[in-house]
C-alpha cells in the first residue's frame, strides 16, 4: 500500500509515518500543507491518503477541501480523514461524494493502533470506516427532535412496558418501584407528550402510539 500523509502536526505526522512503515507499508510522502499534498498525490499516485481536516494557512477547511479535490481528480484514491473533533459540515461534504474508500476518524483513535490500522486497511480495500463517535454525533445533530426526546430514561422504560401491554402493577414489579412512582412517571409522560385529558382520547393508547411510531421511524 502506497500512502501519502498530510498533517500539520509534526509529531503526529512523523509518528504516523513511523507506525505505518513499521507495519511494512510504503509511506511515499509526508507534508504539512494541502497544496503540497495535492502535488504529492499527482507525483506519487498513492493508493491511500491520510489527511488532517484543518491545515494551513487558515486552519479551517483546507484539509477537507484538498481531500475532496484529490478524490475527484483520482477516483480510485482511498482517503482516511483525521479530525480532532466531529465537524458535521466537513463530514457531510466528504460523504456527499460517496462513501467507498473513505474513512473519517477522530485523532484520538490513532492511539488505538489495532483499530486505526484495521480502519486504514478497510478503507484501502474499498470499504468505509467512520468513527463511532462521529456517527453518534452526526445522527444526534441531524435527527429531528420528537416529543419522545423529552422523556427521561426511566419514563421511556415505563412507556416501553406500556407498549408491551403491561399494567401499572406489572410495570412497578418489572422496574422494582412502587405503583405510586409508576403513576407519577405516567403523568409526566402524558404532560411531556402534550396529551391533555379529554373525553375522546385514551392518553395511554395515544402515548403508546407515539412510542411505536418513533420506533418505526428509527428502523
Structure description:
By secondary structure, this protein is of the alpha/beta class. The protein folds into two domains: about 1-140, Response regulator (Rossmann fold, 3-Layer(aba) Sandwich), CATH 3.40.50.2300; about 145-219, Winged helix-like DNA-binding domain superfamily/Winged helix DNA-binding domain (Arc Repressor Mutant, subunit A, Orthogonal Bundle), CATH 1.10.10.10. It contains ten helices and six strands. It has helices spanning about 10-20, 35-45, 60-75, 90-95, 115-125, 130-140, 155-165, 170-175, 180-190, 205-219, and strands at about 1-5, 25-30, 50, 80-85, 100-105, 130. It has a six-stranded parallel beta sheet, with helices on both faces. α5 links the parallel β5 (about 100-105) and β6 (about 130). α2 packs parallel to α3 (about 60-75) and α7 (about 155-165) crosses α10. The mean pLDDT is about 85.
Outline the secondary-structure elements.
Layout: E1 2-6, H1 10-22, E2 26-31, H2 34-44, E3 48-52, H3 62-73, E4 78-83, H4 88-95, E5 102-106, H5 113-124, E6 128-130, H6 132-142, H7 153-163, H8 168-175, H9 179-192, H10 203-218
Parallel strand pairs: 1-2, 1-3, 3-4, 4-5, 5-6
Helix pairs in contact: 2-3, 7-9, 7-10, 8-9
Amino acid at each position: 500500500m502506497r500512502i501519502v500523509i498530510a498533517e500539520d502536526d509534526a509529531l503526529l505526522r512523523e509518528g504516523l509515518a513511523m507506525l505505518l512503515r513499521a507495519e511494512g507499508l510504503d509511506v511515499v510522502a509526508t507534508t504539512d500543507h494541502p497544496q503540497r499534498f495535492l502535488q504529492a498525490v499527482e507525483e506519487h499516485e498513492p493508493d491511500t491518503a491520510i489527511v488532517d481536516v484543518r491545515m494551513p494557512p487558515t486552519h479551517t477547511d483546507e484539509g477537507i477541501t484538498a481531500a475532496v479535490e484529490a478524490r475527484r481528480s483520482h477516483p480510485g484514491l482511498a482517503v482516511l480523514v483525521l479530525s480532532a473533533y466531529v465537524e458535521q459540515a466537513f463530514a457531510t461534504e466528504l460523504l456527499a461524494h460517496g462513501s467507498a474508500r473513505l474513512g473519517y476518524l477522530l485523532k484520538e483513535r490513532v492511539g488505538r493502533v489495532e483499530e486505526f490500522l484495521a480502519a486504514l486497511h478497510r478503507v484501502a480495500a474499498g470499504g468505509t470506516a467512520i468513527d463511532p463517535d462521529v456517527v453518534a454525533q452526526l445522527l444526534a445533530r441531524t435527527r429531528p427532535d420528537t416529543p419522545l426526546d423529552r422523556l427521561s430514561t426511566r419514563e421511556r422504560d415505563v412507556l416501553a412496558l406500556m407498549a408491551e401491554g403491561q399494567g401499572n402493577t406489572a410495570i412497578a414489579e418489572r422496574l422494582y418501584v412502587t405503583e405510586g412512582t409508576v403513576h407519577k412517571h405516567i403523568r409526566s409522560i402524558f404532560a411531556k407528550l402534550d396529551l391533555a385529558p379529554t373525553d375522546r382520547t385514551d392518553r395511554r393508547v395515544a402515548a403508546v402510539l407515539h412510542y411505536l411510531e418513533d420506533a418505526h421511524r428509527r428502523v
